[in-house]
Amino acid sequence: MKENENTDNFQNMLNALPYCTALLDKEFKLVTYNKRMQDKIGINNLKGVLSERPGHVFGCVHAQDGLKCGQTDKCRECSLNQLIDHYEISDSISLECKIISVLNGSMNALELKVHINAVNLDQDSYIMMTLENQNEQKRKELLNRTFIHDLMNTATGLTSLIDYIELTEDAKNFCEYSPLIKKQAAYIMEEIRAHKGLLTGNTDSTHVNYEYCISDDILKC
Question: pTM surpassing 0.90?
Answer without folding.
Answer: no
